[in-house]
């Protein structure tokens, strides 16, 4: 089956008059993989384009009566969005009556904005940090910002603000869950994500506690955990004691005890709770790897891999399409665990309808499989690295190096103008073969 998703407004490079921009869709094939990679310098709108694509895919599949499982790996919060909301609130309230603003933005949305600005002003240390994917909040920025003449940016694409149902998974939360919820919109449910002891591999414990399997206690623990599959700290200790002198436990035992204590005290783990239980195709699943979660890079990669493994297993069972949106994909591509998960999606996704859509600023230095494995490439704004330009030129026929490369600017003013002009615009290379200029559609959510 083909599922057409809305990409934006584009025009062919050759033969057609410039300015003649028409609606562009991309046909996704449900039984195949549709991997994509988005590239572009900082601030040109990669994250924004990814958000728009999530919405396109979510809506297009629902139209066909299929609810896909969507995972979004979020990296950053975007304080500038909160600042812009405040600005819009003040400017619009001076200009229009409340009734008129209800009409323009919708009553629910405007009431939310009033409450949100109030909270940000009263408790600036608690609120004002929406995530890059605050999809539970309608995009009032897109309704406010003018673009292409007299149109608003959303109006230009025939869209209006909308909030999407989101489950946001936070690991070892650094902030109160309710503060995170309010920052990300009323359709967000925030879940403190727990990993069940039974689903952690010994390698996870090894990295968490620096217990190497080279040491005696490490070796013993590995046997109990991975070979005997006893994955409950209390039972592990019982087992370890069997191998020890119960009258006078050895140092090996007390080391194992320390490691198990560490597991028991860590709020990331649980005996019977697993965040997998909350993963759903009724809501968009945002994996919050921003500052809201307190994780090491190693743990992020292990969790990413865990989710991919789980998804591959359930795709096989459930036969529903799965989409991984991975912003700042270099964080995973640069780590052996993360890279193995990416390659697993590339390898096994094709036959199972598991899709990987990634975004990054630079390709040079990343594992080549990342770009070789993707089906389509999107360029958002300008490419910042000359090395990447060369690579793209080699890979995509018909791409114009001068056009996609960063233009030289002779003043900061000129640079900012260039940036503004190219924001949310770029090229889309269908099957890495056919290239078109495109203005990417905007997201309805923030
Ligand atoms: N409708 C809008 N109107 C004006 N600005 C917007 C709108 N939507 C998003 N932005 C802002 O544009 C900026 C750049 O977008 P975005 O974060 O998507 O860039 P990026 O390419 O992902 O950058 P980076 O590589 O640094 O992550 C952001 O600060 C975002 O808040
Ligand atoms: Mg970004």
How would you summarize this macromolecular structure in one to three sentences?
By secondary structure, this protein is an alpha/beta fold.
What are the key terms here?
Rossmann fold, 446 residues, twelve-stranded mixed β-sheet, 3 domains, 18 helices, single chain, 43% helix, binds adenosine-5'-triphosphate, two-stranded parallel ribbon, binds magnesium ion, alpha/beta, 14 strands
Detailed description of the structure:
This protein has 446 residues and is α/β, with parallel strands linked by helices. The protein has 3 domains: 210 residues, P-loop containing nucleotide triphosphate hydrolases (Rossmann fold), CATH 3.40.50; 85 residues, no CATH class; 75 residues. Helix content is 43%, strand content 17%. It has a 12-stranded mixed beta sheet with strand order 2-1-14-13-12-3-11-10-4-9-5-6, sandwiched between helices. A two-stranded parallel sheet has the order 7-8. Strand 13 and strand 14 form a beta hairpin. The chain is globular. The model has no long low-confidence stretch (mean pLDDT 92). The structure holds adenosine-5'-triphosphate (ATP) and magnesium ion (MG).
């Amino acid at each position: 089956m083909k599922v057409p998703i809305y990409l934006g407004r584009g025009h062919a490079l050759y033969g057609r008059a410039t300015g003649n921009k028409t609606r562009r869709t991309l046909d996704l094939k449900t039984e195949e993989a549709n991997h994509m990679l988005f590239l572009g310098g900082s601030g040109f709108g990669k994250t924004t384009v990814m958000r728009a694509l999530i919405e396109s895919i979510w809506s297009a599949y629902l139209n066909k009566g299929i609810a896909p499982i969507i995972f979004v790996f979020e990296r950053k919060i975007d304080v500038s969005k909160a600042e812009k909301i405040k600005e819009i609130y003040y400017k619009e309230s001076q200009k229009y009556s409340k009734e008129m603003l209800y009409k323009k933005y919708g009553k629910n949305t405007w009431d939310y904005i009033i409450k949100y600005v109030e909270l940000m002003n009263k408790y600036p240390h608690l609120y004002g940090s929406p995530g890059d994917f605050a999809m539970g909040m309608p995009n009032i920025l897109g309704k406010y910002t003018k673009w292409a003449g007299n149109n608003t940016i959303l109006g230009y694409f025939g869209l209006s603000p909308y909030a999407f149902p989101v489950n946001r998974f936070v690991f070892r939360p650094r902030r109160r869950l309710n503060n995170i919820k309010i920052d990300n919109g009323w359709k967000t449910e925030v879940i403190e994500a727990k990993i069940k002891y039974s689903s952690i591999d010994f390698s996870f414990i090894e990295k968490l506690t620096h217990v190497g399997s080279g040491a005696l206690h490490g070796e013993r623990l590995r046997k109990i955990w991975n070979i005997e599959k006893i994955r409950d700290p209390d039972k592990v200790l019982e087992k370890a004691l069997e191998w020890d002198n119960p009258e006078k436990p050895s140092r090996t035992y007390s080391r194992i005890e320390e490691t198990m204590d560490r597991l028991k005290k860590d709020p990331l783990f649980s005996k019977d709770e697993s965040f997998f239980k909350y993963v759903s195709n009724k809501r968009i699943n945002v994996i919050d790897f921003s500052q809201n979660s307190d994780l090491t890079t190693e743990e992020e990669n292990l969790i990413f891999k865990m989710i991919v493994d789980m998804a591959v297993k359930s795709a096989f069972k459930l036969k529903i399409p799965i989409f991984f949106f991975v912003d700042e994909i270099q964080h995973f591509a640069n780590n052996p665990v993360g890279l193995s998960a990416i390659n697993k999606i590339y390898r096994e996704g094709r036959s199972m309808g598991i899709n990987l859509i990634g975004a990054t600023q630079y390709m040079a230095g990343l594992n080549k499989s990342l770009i070789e494995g993707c089906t389509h490439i999107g360029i958002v704004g300008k490419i910042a690295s000359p090395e990447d330009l060369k690579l793209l030129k080699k890979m995509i026929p018909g791409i114009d190096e001068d056009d996609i490369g960063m233009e030289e600017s002779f003043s900061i003013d000129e640079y900012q103008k260039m940036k503004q002009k190219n924001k949310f615009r770029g090229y889309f290379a269908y099957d890495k073969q056919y290239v078109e200029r495109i203005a990417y559609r905007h997201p309805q959510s923030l």
